[in-house]
């Protein structure tokens, strides 16, 4: 057995005396997140000393194989999706969604859902007027407002003349004025958020047209969350304003899916009275009935209840909802933020304990859903690194990517069908695109994920070696490996290829030797690292040593891999994220859609 262990750990071919299926026996189970430790059992026992095979030189070597016969999970083609917060009405960015640059960036992440929802969902009123530009309010002196609003009106008139997808090229001075307006509104929005008191917000017919145009031009499917806090005296939902919006959308033949409300567990703090799960379920049934009365939406999808973190009272709300309306919704939704954005530090993003907080939430949600509607799809909506709008130079930096990529891997491995990222563009710092319309590190990470990762999730088998195993020292959680079939939409790779994505939270490099079905295959490396002197705080990234930036407003850069020779050991630099496409594996699980 010692001879066999030596052969395996050195990566040498197994002699004929090896029993078949040894690799699978060494690392059994369908663990999707790779774990590495010499201790084979939990407890205080020390691992047996193992003679170091030649060439290891005291470093950790990990043997990695993937089960290529069948997937363990299949997630949605729209797994990585996006969110826009209604605050973009307040700060004016909604008027700029027709920007060619924004449409190009959003198009890069298609296919996906675009969820229009957030804290202000339940203060949103629809007003069916077409051109309210001259009645808008905002900060600044009169001459500034007049010039700015006149520019918006002229832009709207120009867009109305276009047929099909409406794209605008906004002058730099117009964008500069908008950024000034947004900066002033940012303070107002933050004050509302911290005090948990929100002002009413009006969505006009023209604004809805702009929102839908952006989604449609970008190849995104719009999900619109309706205001659930318009209540009747008996606390039932007042659907009159929602019906007006539904009728207008139907008249335009807009293809939209629907939700009702946002974080209903917080309603008591917002309006002084709560809506329990049973009542919320009745409200959803009422909405489903409304949709069935409108031919355009008689078969529209309905998602909810979009609860917050599943604490005891929230679980009780979800249970009440599922009893009444579990069969009414097409997917059950909740949301999660890892850190309070007001107190976050860069080291927080490197804590494995923080990365793992999501696992417990998934189990709690799945337990309730499977009790009432077994097999019902579950979505995580409104996920972000930090709450309270995020923190500048942290939640919009390279460091935040560790949380984001691990979230994607963890959710896919546990069968969560869709994850909606908050937000594509907004007033805070959790977004993928900043207010200069420049993509941030998490955008590039998301783009790589979309280009390389398919919906079929594969099981990983691993074995590891430590030079000096020490009791109580856990290294496995800092190196995370996930595997999927390579995206069928990527025509650079034939079907049957496999993509690994790896997070190295260690402050030292790690080595991985591909074994079994992955052995001696050509590998394409996509190594994402921070660019410039800011390190983990950087808002720019490099791919295989090349800075990533848009070519022009209508063109994303080519994502060029670094080919590695067949059989080469993968060397994972410290504090990095990377993707590896193993070519021509001819994996049975990946040959067909």
TrEMBL record:
One Pfam entry name: Glyco_hydro_79n
Protein name per Swiss-Prot or TrEMBL: HPSE2 protein
GO cellular component terms listed in the entry, alphabetical order: extracellular matrix; extracellular space; membrane
InterPro entries to which the protein is assigned, alphabetical: GH, Glyco_hydro_79
Organism: Calonectris borealis (Cory's shearwater)
Family assignment from sequence similarity: Belongs to the glycosyl hydrolase 79 family.
Example GO biological process: extracellular matrix organization
SUPFAM superfamilies documented for this protein: (Trans)glycosidases
GO MF entries: hydrolase activity, acting on glycosyl bonds
Gene3D superfamilies noted in UniProt: Glycosidases (3.20.20.80)
